[in-house]
Design brief:
This protein is an alpha/beta fold. Helix content is 39%, strand content 19%. The chain contains 18 helices and 18 strands. It has helices at residues 18-31, 45-50, 87-90, 105-122, 136-147, 197-204, 213-218, 229-234, 271-282, 304-316, 329-341, 354-363, 379-386, 396-401, 407-412, 425-439, 442-454, 460-476; strands at 2-6, 36-42, 56-61, 69-76, 79-85, 131-135, 156-160, 168-169, 190-191, 194-196, 207-210, 239-241, 291-298, 320-327, 346-350, 366-369, 389-393, 418-420. The strands form three sheets. A nine-stranded mixed β-sheet has the order 3-4-5-2-1-6-7-11-12, sandwiched between helices. The chain has a six-stranded parallel β-sheet with strand order 15-14-13-16-17-18, with helices on both faces. The chain has a three-stranded antiparallel β-sheet with strand order 8-10-9. A hairpin with a 2-residue loop joins strand 9 and strand 10 (194-196). The radius of gyration is 23 Å and the shape is globular. It is an enzyme of class 2 (transferase). It catalyses: [(1->4)-alpha-D-glucosyl](n) + ADP-alpha-D-glucose = [(1->4)-alpha-D-glucosyl](n+1) + ADP + H(+). This is Glycogen synthase. Residues 286-434 form the Glycosyl transferase family domain.
């Protein structure tokens, strides 16, 4: 089985979030099940720099959305890639923008979709896909170009990683897409008079997946559907919730090169050296009080404003806190002010640092994830893997992957973290206070850590579900 994946980012080459981790890890998991995946990605500067000299050009365009372009085949970091080398579209800072969205993102990712559809129709040397798998709005137009072109018989899947990001553009761009007039309809790319890239992909796909079973149910409701709930409800029979996994080779506390001290479930005492490193990096007091962390974009969705609201009471309750992330400038400012008020108890690093995120999972007692909605989430999976107990809002994939430490779960020894609901500041504070109480019982806390570390957070089970879905779709054609 040969599958073409289309994605706007892929770890370890380019990453802004969990989409890159999924695009980078899923092909390897599928390979073990006899599925060959080649991933089409844009030729950003970081990708082009990683190309080996003499990489094979497998397709050329005299004109593709305003300039010449080519598709280059390459293997980089164990990934089997097809790279859209279009300097006029991708040779610039950032992935989606340099401090903001690029005005021509519609053109950039329409070009990615057109290239994906061309590969679906014609293939490249030694590769003709049996199925196309597009990720999020940036790749969704692949399926629209297939539908209105000559690759409409090739089965397709679109994965929604976050329905909040839809790729909605003015209807005035439609003539520039090169699609037939019939495509500008409610059954095509039209979306409330505009052009909706994600909407177009959801309409055209043979099947739709999203990244957790609970989120698959949530997005069919008005509360979480972001204006697409009607379409998704209408396609409920084709909608599948498949929880994400993580790359357990990259995220492995026993071998992680980013850690001062490696450890496993039977050697949790070795986490102390990592804890000391976190304390030093964030300027925190060295004491026995519980150490909580946050690794997140600073946005409304991620509930960081809720954390800002209760940060002072959390510190007063006896906890210490380390935060890594960036985003909303007002939230950043509020957290920086709090760090100044609580020196030694609260530290913050603005930005993103992959090695530091590994260290925090390996050295902190718990990770806070107060998201208002969360399609799947990966940080709680990293936390489980590293014995950093997740404290999560009860939504989406967070609800599907963390077993709450209620009395029954604690007594049975199956708890892996804490959930809270409703999703507001008061509930967040109560969950932190509950965690502080549980942390005082070393036996209970160690049991939660070990139980979390036993959880299967790999791609194995989920890859099996994707492979089965692919097989079904191909057999139906």
């Amino acid at each position: 089985m040969q599958v073409l994946a289309v994605a706007s980012e892929i770890f370890p080459l380019v990453k802004t979030g969990g989409l890159a981790d999924v695009a980078g890890a899923l092909p390897g998991a599928l390979a073990a099940r006899g599925v060959t995946v080649r991933t089409l990605v844009p030729g950003y500067p970081a990708v082009m720099r990683a190309l080996a000299p003499g990489s094979a050009q497998v397709r050329h365009y005299d004109e593709l959305f305003g300039g010449t372009a080519s598709i280059v085949a390459a293997e980089i970091a164990g990934l089997n890639l097809l790279i859209l080398d279009a300097p006029h579209l991708f040779d610039r800072p950032g992935i989606y923008g340099d401090g903001g969205d690029y005005d021509d993102n519609w053109r950039r990712f329409a070009a990615l979709g057109k290239a994906g559809a061309d590969i679906a129709e014609h293939g490249v040397p030694h590769f003709l896909p049996d199925l196309v798998h597009a990720h999020d709005w940036q790749a969704a137009m692949t399926l629209a170009y297939m539908r209105y072109g000559n690759a409409h018989a090739v089965p397709s899947v679109i994965t929604v990683h976050n329905l909040a990001f839809q790729g909605q553009f003015s209807g005035s761009i439609f003539p520039g897409l090169g699609l037939p007039d019939a495509a500008m309809s409610i059954q095509g790319v039209e979306y409330y008079g505009d052009v909706g890239f994600l909407k177009a992909g959801l309409q055209a796909a043979s099947a739709i997946t999203t990244v957790s079973p609970t989120y698959a149910r949530e997005i069919r409701t008005r509360e979480f559907g972001m204006g697409l709930d009607g379409l998704l409800e209408g396609r409920a029979a084709d909608l599948h919730g498949i929880v994400n996994g993580i790359d357990t080779a990259v995220w492995n506390p026993e071998t992680d090169v980013h850690l001062p001290s490696n450890y496993g479930p039977r050697s949790l005492v070795k986490r102390r050296m990592n804890r000391a490193a976190v304390e030093a990096r964030f300027g925190l007091d060295n004491d026995a009080s519980p150490l909580f962390c946050v690794v997140s974009r600073m946005t409304w969705q991620k509930g960081i404003d809720l954390l800002v609201e209760v940060l002072d009471p959390i510190v007063s309750a006896g906890a210490r806190l380390a935060i890594l992330g960036s985003g909303d400038h007002a939230m950043e400012g509020a957290l920086l002010s709090a760090a100044a008020r609580h020196r030694g108890r609260f530290g913050i690093v603005i930005g993103y640092d992959e090695p530091l995120s590994h260290l925090m999972q390996a050295g902190c007692d718990a990770i806070l994830i107060p998201s208002r909605f969360e399609p799947c989430g990966l940080t709680q999976l990293y936390g489980l893997r590293y014995g950093c107990v997740p404290i999560v809002s009860r939504t989406g994939g967070l609800a599907d992957t963390v077993i709450d430490a209620n009395e029954a779960a604690v007594s049975a020894g199956v708890a892996t973290g804490l959930q809270f609901s409703p999703i507001d500041a008061s509930s967040l504070l109560r969950s932190v206070e509950r965690a502080i109480f549980l942390h005082r019982d070393a036996g209970v806390w160690t049991s939660m850590q070990k139980q979390g570390m036993k959880a299967d957070v790999s791609w194995d089970r989920s890859a099996g579900r994707y492979a089965s879905l692919y097989e079904t779709l191909i057999s139906e054609e």
